[in-house]
Amino acid sequence: MSLIAWNCRGLGSPRTVRFLREITQQIKPSFIFLSETLAKKSRVIEVCKTINYAGCWVVESQGQSGGLALIWKNEGSCTLRESNTHFIDFEVENEQVGRWRYTGFYGCPEWGRKRESWNVLRTLAEKSNLPWCVIGDFNNLMYANEKRGGPEYPRSMLTGFVETLMECNLMDLGFTGERYTWEKSRGTSHWVQERLDRGVATQAWSDLFPDAEIKVLEVAPSDHLPLNLQLNRQVYMPKAKRFRFENVWIKEKDCLQLIKNSWASTEGETIMSRIQLCCIKLEEWGGGVKQEFRDKLANCKKRLRQLRTRRDMQGAIMYKTARWEYLNLLEKQEIYWKQRAKQFWLREGDQNTRFFHKYAATRKRANTIQRIQNSEGEWKETIGEIQDVITEYFSGLFQSEGNDGDLSQGEKVKEVTDEENEGLIAEVT
Known about the structure:
By secondary structure, this protein is α+β, with helices and mostly antiparallel strands. It has helices at about 15-25, 40-50, 115-125, 155-165, 205-210, 255-265, 270-305, 315-345, 345-350, 355-365, 385-395, 420-425; strands at about 1-5, 30-35, 55-60, 70, 80-85, 85-95, 100-105, 130-135, 145-150, 170, 175, 180-185, 190-195, 195-200, 215, 225-230, 370-375, 380. Helix 1 (about 15-25) crosses helix 8, helix 3 (about 115-125) packs parallel to helix 4 and helix 6 (about 255-265) packs across helix 7 (about 270-305).
């Protein structure tokens, strides 16, 4: 399970919605908490449907400021406790660990109202003893080194925020990725960067999810970077690559000619050699079509990571250019898939671009082991635990039980003759 928390600075921009669609397809979070939506409920519901999520809870904006939204992937996955302009508080039911509490938080940005945010946290802490996690834009720093550029952050504000967290028994969850989650005036003498967004939790919550990790995503159309809370840290497992013939290739006019050319060039070879070479040619040709946008987006993200820490004028210009290119690629990718949907899936999908995306996603879900039950009835979800359960099962399956290997008296075993042995070891034809 994972969660996204992001100060999106308005849901009115198509770029913001496009970015949300991209990260939901990549990360597949169970919940998304958005602050400063600057939107009414109708707009949030529209966005929710666009990214194909089941439901949402909305705190509408007040004029041209504020606004919160909690969006969830599956119905019945959470229970709302309370909400106002500062937070959305809800409970999550988990079969493995039981109930726990999650609060999406938005702190007051005005200096004179910081203590108001702290008092809200104190009030929330008193309302439940459930394991508790709070994540969002606190508009506060814990330490002086969480700011770069601009005037020094007031020590009284640092101390007040840290003391509030201690009173609430909340501890910082740390992060990986970008150090600063918010910035303004990049490339100018007034450039400021701060870590305003974070996740904090009680010790009881950390005991439930000892492998939990917050990743700061490297790029966003807002001046805030999104936070991705992974409850079970993902371990990279390299997958064995195998050839898959894509049905969509049949619709390409070059596909048949490529197969004919490959088959003609290997005349005289064994059938397996000819098939293998044909597969290689198809992957070289068809794989490029699939990978083009993915590779370009990955390169853009890599450049953005490298340029983000540069504070010179040229670096700032290059960062803005790369960021524009990334957002523009998202737009082009969307147009590309819509065109392909009309061209190749007109009959099957009735001009509905969701048709083939939903079909592929459903098949992938059906073929993915998300959790497994061991011999003691316990559910296991992480990659390592799932592998251990499978290994244990098949190791026991092929072991004999209750037999010391001795044959009972009078029992005979038929011997394999030399002629029969020759037939068994002969090469398959």
